[in-house]
Amino acid sequence: MTRHPHTRLGTFLLLCVLCLPAHAAKRICVLADTHVMAPSLVDRSDNQAWQADLAGNKKMQELSVPIFDVLVERIKSDKPDALLIVGDLTKDGEVESHDYVVKKLTEIETAGIPVYVIPGNHDRGWTGGARKYANNTYTDTKYLSETKFRTYYQDFGYGDTSECHASTLTYATRLFDGLTLIGIDSEQDARIEQDAIEWSCRKAQEARDRGDQVVVMMHHSLIPHFYGQETFHEQSVVDDCDDIRDRLMGAGVKVVLTGHYHVSDIARYTNADGQTIYDISTGSPISHPCDYRALVFDDTFTKLNILTNTISSLDGYDDFAVYSEQRLRKAIQKWAVNWLSQRSENKLLVELMSQAVTNVFVIHANGNEPANPASSEAVRIYDDIEYLAPLFSLSVTDIMKEVSLSMKSILGDYQDPADITNVVDDRELTITLPPVPTAISSIQRQPGPSDEAWYTLQGLRLPHRPTRPGTYIHQGRFVIL
């Protein structure tokens, strides 16, 4: 609901005090999927087992440390007001990799920049990939447990200044006076415990009640970024995403920071009441185009500018941007052939579709697909694919049509073919956040039908009778529960 100093709520009028205290503008750096692998985990760059693991991987894993080191130096030089990392800090949760990350994050905090992290699916527990490479082979190596993750990162979100959920790595902290951060643990398999989401919504509501804006960060996507995302990237969107999205919106959350699928993309959802929430995904610095983000809040936390930066050069590479795109294209081509081959034995289909799919995912990685001249040609190719589809068997036809729907969704930068106009700028976007009222000064009854709803003292309509103690508005009266 839109909030004004005079807001009519059914049979009564709430006189809200919109005191918007001015703060200094805040700049926050956001990283995702750094996948740092400690140098001590590989004996030499030409280790055969190591090279086999690198082949066809869209992550430039061998560059994780030099790129992370560049980012650390940039952050210390830029001096943002905070650094957020939305998961997959390490390659596969190796203790040695976490040691390296913690050492570098400590450097950043020593420079006066607070750091907050949330784990991804590669950061704790057995992932199947925690390895040490030596003598042209590998052996399993120690990885961090969930309990140890909390201990390792106690200075980066899990310390005394945060409220931590009892059974998950979810936490809430007041990032600044006027802005609360909630880090939600989406586990290894893109699932959020019911108690964790309920706890997070309570903390978001408490933050709103004290006049704070709320930013949530989690590793996996909350909103699908294109039609059929789960078909191509299993466990990339949290389970029960629609329900969790609606519950966060009901608690006043407008901005959710995500990662996981290595693309800088922004998805927007608006409900029937006109409330909007954004899923701001940040790409990986070790996957083309090697992105990281900056969030710039104005001095009242009612305007948010989202900016995107890239690692476009690296020592030892004449044209790192070209190299990184070639690496990505090669990896996606290999993946696309494998993905299509699992679904059809038709070699013509695999050959026809794999290159087209590869082109689209490279366009997707670069962002703002509709503005990319290559998108128009790619759409024409999928028009041709749809035209040819009936010439194949029914099962092949279905695959061709379904893939085409997804690829056109990417190229058009929309999440739902039924709403192709829901497009936002992926690389640079300004979001206006509704101000948070700080108090209700009085209630005046107005003629009209009875209103059975409950409201907070900030004028937020609640979906049901409050379950926690506090002071509320009901039927034109202050009610203390």
Secondary structure blueprint with pairings:
Blueprint: E1 6-9, E2 12-17, E3 26-31, H1 48-54, H2 64-78, E4 82-85, H3 95-110, E5 115-117, E6 131-134, E7 137-140, H4 146-152, E8 162-164, E9 171-176, E10 179-184, H5 194-209, E11 213-218, H6 229-232, H7 241-250, E12 255-258, E13 265-270, E14 276-281, E15 291-297, E16 303-310, H8 320-341, H9 347-366, H10 373-388, H11 394-412, E17 429-432, E18 439-445, E19 454-455, E20 461-462, E21 471-474, E22 477-480
Parallel strand pairs: 3-4, 4-5, 10-11, 11-12, 12-14
Antiparallel strand pairs: 1-2, 2-18, 3-15, 6-7, 8-9, 9-10, 13-14, 15-16, 16-17, 19-20, 19-21, 21-22
Helix pairs in contact: 2-3, 5-7, 8-9, 9-10, 9-11, 10-11
Can you give a write-up of this model?
With 481 residues, this protein is α+β, with helices and mostly antiparallel strands. The chain has 3 domains: 26-311 and 424-432, Metallo-dependent phosphatases (Purple Acid Phosphatase, chain A, domain 2); 320-366 and 369-412, no CATH class; 445-480, no CATH class. The chain contains 11 helices and 22 strands. The strands form 5 sheets. It has a 7-stranded mixed β-sheet, covered by helices on one side. It has a 6-stranded mixed β-sheet with strand order 5-4-3-15-16-17, with helices on one face. The protein has a 4-stranded antiparallel β-sheet with strand order 20-19-21-22, with no helix packed on it. A hairpin with a 5-residue loop joins strand 19 and strand 20. The longest helix has 22 residues, at 320-341. It is globular and about 70 Å long. The model is unreliable at 1-19 (pLDDT under 50).
